[in-house]
Amino acid sequence: MAKTNVDKELLLKVATNARLNLTEAEIKKFLPQMQDILGAFSKLDELRDLKEEPSFQPIQLKNVFREDKAGKCLSQEEALSNTKHSKRGYFLGPKVSE
Amino acid sequence: MKVQSVLEFAEQARAGNIGIEENTHKILDKVFAANGMNFFNVISKDLALQQAKELDSRVKQGKASGKLFGLPVSVKDCICVKGIESRAGSRILDGYLPVFDATVVSKAKAEGAIIIGKTSQDEFGFGTFSTNTGIGFNAPKNPFDSERSCGGSSGGSAGLTAFADFAHVSISESTGGSIACPAGFCGVAGFTPTYGLVSRYGLIDYANSLDKIGSMGKTVADSALLLESIAGHDEKDSTSLNEKPSFADEKNFSTKGLKIGIIKDFFGEGINPDVSKIAWNSIKKLEKAGAKIKEISLSLNAKFSVPAYYLIAMAESSTNLAKFCGMRYGAQESLSGSFNEYFSKVRSNNFGEEAKRRILLGTFARMSGFRDAYYLKAMKARTRLINEFRLAFKEFDVLANPTMPVIAPKFSEIEKLSPIEQYAMDLCTVPSNLAGLPHISINSGFSQKMPVGIMLVADYLQEKKLFRAASALEELQ
Q1: What is the pLDDT at residue A3?
Q2: Owning domain of residue B437
Q3: Across residues B300-325, what is the average pLDDT?
Q4: Mean pLDDT of A84-97
Q5: Which pLDDT score, from 0 to 100, does residue B250 have?
Q6: A11 touches chain B (CB under 8 A)
Q7: Residue A35 is assigned to a structural domain of this protein
Q8: B chain contacts of residue A83, beta-carbon cutoff 8 Å
Q9: Which of A22, A42, B348, B396 sits between 20 and 30 A of B223, alpha carbons compared?
């Protein structure tokens, strides 16, 4: 991982994926920082022969099932209580297509 | 002045010897007067007084019950309290009023806790000093020296716990050390449980495989009482364990024969010599009291836990933060442009600098072409680091190290640190957090009049062992 070079093009691609618009000042600040941080993280390359299974959780989890019965959930009114954008009992979102 | 223990307070309150509304008023006055210390993002005065009235009437009806009866309890901002603005220290959650309580809050309320407010923190927990606050938030100041940090990310909880001259505990949260670090910097007890022991339902997530809700109190006993009140299985959290610790019967803190491993990697290079000496002296006291002390090296954790932790934490947080897009709750703007334009606008205007940095790094680490080299590698490294701990616990009951490599730094010093220098400060707290192991930080002395924390780590679900060792150490101080 040590050889990854973060240039402006890659940073902007990442930012677009993350739905962030970066200002020129932010680009100037983040670009060298990302390079530094990823450089420091590349220390992990020193761990040779990583054949271990990845630990997606720190402890083993078991599947937990419950009876397939409807439980309590939020009312429509409660679910909409924090939005400014609703219409006829639904969330109103931005345009998906022109 | 010795502050009444939580156990004693709740007992007196249940017996009707404390006017709960009157006491709550008094405490609210104190916390409002200390507003300049920035311990709180919100003080929930109306809720607290309403709860206090209800509890007073329960006393009159002879129905007073609960381990935390009438006790003022603060809650880290990232934990949802119904009807109280809960923002995890971020402007992107401005105005968000949860319509439900987090499980830990329901449990605390059921034990008679009075919720006095939401404590300040780094935005979403992204920091070591509570200085990476969201736009419009202020960093909490250390009660021992207001030019210094409380630590982070549960800085407000620790600062308030140290400041309080009244019985109080705080529900806090740790991802990579966010309970131990501020507890160490503020000289209070911070108890982080085994991953999964406490339900995360209603927690505004940072990194799901790392987040642990825990407790802070002036003493080990106070923090343990809160922990046992909020722990236990919860079907609303699929990672919740079916375990519940109980410390009530733990009266004998004898450390005779207790095997303590001193993690020598965290006493030398990179650790302030005075801090190292103070923590060491503390362990020597335990040795005198009958504990068996031996040095051990966790060299893999010392070298690799910080990069592995940060990669995993950033990758997970970048997906968690994807849900904040200005539609259903929190900061919202007038709907204009396409959905990508709208979401990007709301996110760009409202996330703070460190949140953006971590989203970018985490998104990068998960991107096609980089995922195996970064994210997956960190996950495999985590397995190896956990195995190093497993081996250590074959020989030892608890492991010990200084909580932080330095005393609480001044805000002017923190400003000069680069992000990577700040991340490196988590050296001693990250290993047990990455492994999901229970740990506790208590005060072990003072350097330049600032508290120095010592951290004890135990094997999975060995909270009782941790409680015994920490209580013994606390008595010997």
Answers
A1: 60
A2: 1-477
A3: 97
A4: 91
A5: 75
A6: yes
A7: yes
A8: 327-329, 332
A9: B396
Q: Which residue among B44, B67, B74, B76 is the active-site one?
A: B76
Nearest CB neighbour to A85, from listed B239, B327, B386: B327
On whether residue A60 sits in a domain, the answer given is no
B373 vs chain A: nearest CA distance in angstroms? 6
Given a cut of 70, whether residue B269 has pLDDT beyond it is yes
pLDDT tens digits for B406-459? Answer: 999 999 999 999 999 999 999 999 999 999 999 999 999 999 999 999 999 999
Closest chain A residue to B382, measured at CA: A55
pTM of the complete model beyond 0.95: yes
Sign of CA dihedral B58, B60, B65, B66: positive
Q: Is A49 on the interface with B (CB under 8 A)?
A: no
Q: Average pLDDT, stretch B170-194?
A: 98
| Number of domains making up chain B | 1
What's the whole-number mean pLDDT along residues B363-380?
94
pLDDT category of residue B1 using cuts at 50, 70 and 90: low
- Using an 8 Å CB-CB cutoff, list chain A residues near B339: 93-96
Q: Would you call A95 and B338 a contact, using CB atoms and an 8 Å cutoff?
A: yes
Annotated catalytic residue B76? yes
pLDDT band at residue A98 using 50, 70 and 90 as cut-offs = low
- State the ipTM, two decimals: 0.95
Looking up residue B106, the CATH number of its domain turns out to be: 3.90.1300.10
Q: What residues of A are in contact with residue B241 (Cβ under 8 Å)?
A: 59
Number of domains in chain A: 1
- The answer to whether residue B153 is catalytic is yes
Residues near B349 by beta carbon (within 8 Å), at least 6 away in sequence: B331, B333
List the domain range (segments joined by +) for residue A35: 8-46
Residues of chain A contacting residue B320, judged by C-beta atoms under 8 Å apart: none
Q: Is B74 a catalytic residue?
A: no
Q: Is B364 on the interface with A (CB under 8 A)?
A: yes
